[in-house]
Amino acid sequence: MGRPNWIIWLLCVLGCECLPVADVVWPNHGKIQSPDFPQPYGPDLLERWDLRVADGYQIQLTFTHMDIEPTQDCSYDALVLLSDDKKLLGKFCGQEDSPDGNHPGNQPILSPGNKMSLVFQTDDTNSEPHKGFSAHYQAMDIDECALLDPDSEPLCSQICHNTLGSYLCSCHHGFELRPDQHTCMASCVGGVFSELMGHLSSPGFPDASLRKLDCRYLISVEPGFTVTLNFTSTFHIESDEGEEGSSCLYHWLEVTVQDQQPVRLCGDQSPGLMITNSNNVTLDFHTDSEGVSDGWSLHYSTERVSCPSPGSLTHGRVTPAFNQYLYKDYIHIRCDQGYKLMMYGREIDSSVIRCQSNGQWHLPLPECQIIDCGKPEELLNGGIKYLSGSDYQHRSVIQYHCNEPYYNLVGGVKVSFTCTADRKWRDNNDVPVVPVCLPVCGKPTARAGQAGRILGGKLALPDTFPWQVLLNVNGRGGGIMIGDRWVMTAAHNLVHNGIQVDKDQVRGGHIDVNELINRAAASVASLHVHPGYDNPNHINYDNDIALIRLQNRITFNSSIMPICLPPDGATYVDGVMGLVSGFGVSQKDGTSILSNKLMFFSPPVVNQQTCIRSLAGESQRLTDNMICAGMPDGKSDACQGDSGSALAISQGDIYTAAGIVSWGIDCNTRGKYGVYTRVVNYLDWIKKTMNDNDI
Ligand SMILES: *[C@@H]1O[C@H](CO)[C@@H](O)[C@H](O)[C@H]1NC(C)=O
Ligand SMILES: *[C@@H]1O[C@H](CO)[C@@H](O)[C@H](O)[C@H]1NC(C)=O
Ligand SMILES: *[C@@H]1O[C@H](CO)[C@@H](O)[C@H](O)[C@H]1NC(C)=O
Question: Domains along the chain?
Answer without folding.
Answer: 6-141 (2.60.120.290), 188-304 (2.60.120.290), 306-370 (2.10.70.10), 382-439 (2.10.70.10), 458-691 (2.40.10.10)
